[in-house]
Amino acid sequence: MSAALVLARARRRVVVVDAGRPRNAPATHLHGYLSRDGFSPTELLAVGRAEVNGYGGQIISSTVIELARDEPAGFAVLLASGERISARRLLVTTGLRDELPDIPGLHDRWARDLLHCPYCHGYEVRDRQLGVVGGTPGAVRYAQIVRQWSRDLAYFTPPNSLTAVERGQLTARGVAIVEGEITQLVINDDRLVGVEMDDGCVVPSQALFVPPRFVPQNGLLLDLGCTVDSHGWVTTDPTGRTSVPGVWAAGNVVDPRAQLITAAGAGSAAAIAVNADLVDEDVNNLMPRPNTRLAS
Predict the structure, then answer these.
(1) Which of 44, 157, 202, 241 is the most buried (most CB within 10 A)?
(2) Domain spanning 101-209: CATH superfamily
(3) Cα dihedral sign for 6, 8, 14, 18?
(4) Pfam families from the entry (predicted)?
């Protein structure tokens, strides 16, 4: 939407194809977005849609199932409805999906008292009994960050999964180490109150932070032949330009750490680059062609 707004104001014909399944749909509020802190994600989306429409941008509720080269127009965009759109440039913002650990009841509590981003939700659960689901690469560092919001933090991890250094770091920061397997979440009056371990012990917890595995939804970009890095993420330049001429990407599909405000900024940067690229093409197409002489 951010990119569409910039391009529409640049008097470009813009079509946004939105499947209507945003990653943050379960969240009731968004935070850290200057001037929009506390908005619901759906409210922000509605305001954005109205602004884009106000400048003549078109928004289609559908899903893109295929992108392909379409000379001389540029690209063909095939929708699930069967509609086909021709476009000179593409910006792909298909995001990522959160692959969560297999803990009974976790999906039902996601974005309520089972959380991922401490910068998005940490302030709202400050000074409560918190927990972090560990045992994955980087989870100890993640727990050290969550500790910023509460002195009462438990780190849940499988037995023998911590190095001596990691154990020392958690202890130094005052993080309680709970070793074992989580069997279930304890819910009372539709609120998380504890985490039950495989030994039957229940550790009090009012909110649980879970570092998920990020999986980019980049199938459309891969099908176009976009280059990826060693971790499988599509590579771009600072404006979001991919290795395929005419194709940009922005948001969580290329940056797993991008928050809403970061993704919106990336969309704006991509739109400015797209417009500049189109201007260059327009100028080149208007330039007179030199006469060509055939050798005798």
Answers:
(1) 157
(2) FAD/NAD(P)-binding domain (3.50.50.60)
(3) positive
(4) Pyr_redox_2
